[in-house]
Design a protein that fits this description.
The complex is a heterodimer of chains A (117) and B (110).
Chain A: E1 3-7, E2 10-12, E3 18-25, E4 34-39, E5 45-51, E6 58-60, E7 68-73, E8 78-83, E9 92-98, E10 106-107, E11 111-115
Parallel strand pairs in A: 2-11
Antiparallel strand pairs in A: 1-3, 3-8, 4-5, 4-9, 5-6, 7-8, 9-10, 9-11
Chain B: E1 9-12, E2 18-23, E3 35-40, E4 47-50, E5 64-69, E6 72-77, E7 86-93, E8 99-101, E9 105-109
The chains are: A mainly beta (117), B mainly beta (110).
Chain lengths: 117, 110
């Protein structure tokens, strides 16, 4: 059974940093790309970042470029999202997601990040 | 990358069919057959309903179907049921090797 479990969310002040983790199980983690998608309270889904299975290619949405860093540890089946210079508009539930092909077949339960003073 | 365009809301009576549209550009929907649809109930994570324009994952009801013409993809729900009431999002792979989502459509079962 595929499972994705995010952690690391919480309350952080504007300008602060946070590191999210996503622990994966039930599939060949190192063989697939992984994704981060976020959802602000009461708003729609927003694509954030992706990383290929070997970590060799990384992609960021404009909202994440220069502030967020995606990475993975294939020995621990874990995906990370390091977030710096956080802004109130980064407040959202952050989901990690995975799919066999070009859809996101599986999603974690999400971890809430709140940026507020 | 601009969001795909979806209607804010669609409604229908039980048993009816409804269709949600999703309009993109030549950078996404118009170029790739990698359109997917997600259902999200309040407080829950999204669930994949359709991928690659018209393919249904195992376990998804046959009442859900997808199609595409030009820059517009569509999700049709036939035999509408109360449990179908949810938010629906389309998504497409893009020429930037990123994904883009639509703003979401709230489906109401009357």
């Amino acid at each position: 059974e595929v499972q994705l479990v995010e952690s690391g969310g919480g309350l952080v002040q504007p300008g602060g940093s946070l590191r999210l983790s996503c622990s994966a199980s039930g599939f060949d983690f190192s063989g697939y790309g992984m994704h981060w998608v976020r959802q602000a309270p009461g708003k729609g889904l927003e694509y954030v970042s992706a990383i290929t299975g070997d970590g060799g290619r990384i992609f960021y949405a404009d909202s994440a470029k220069g502030r967020f860093t995606i990475s993975r540890d294939n020995s621990q089946n874990t995906l990370f999202l390091e977030m710096r210079s956080l802004r109130p508009e980064d407040t959202a539930i952050y989901y990690c997601a995975w799919g066999y092909s070009y859809g996101f077949d599986y999603w974690g339960q999400g971890t809430l990040v709140t940026v507020s003073s | 990358q601009s969001a795909l365009t979806q209607p804010a809301s669609v409604s229908g009576s039980p048993g009816q069919s409804i269709t949600i549209s999703c309009t993109g550009t030549s950078s996404d929907v118009g170029t790739y057959n990698y359109v997917s649809w997600y259902q999200q109930h309040p407080g829950k994570a999204p669930k994949l309903m359709i991928y690659d324009v018209s393919r249904r994952p195992s376990g998804v009801s046959y009442r859900f179907s997808g199609s595409k013409s030009g820059y517009t993809a569509s999700l049709t729900i036939s035999g509408l049921q109360a449990e179908d009431e949810a938010d629906y999002y389309c998504s497409s792979f893009t020429t930037s090797s990123l994904y883009v989502f639509g703003a979401g459509t709230k489906v109401t079962v009357l």
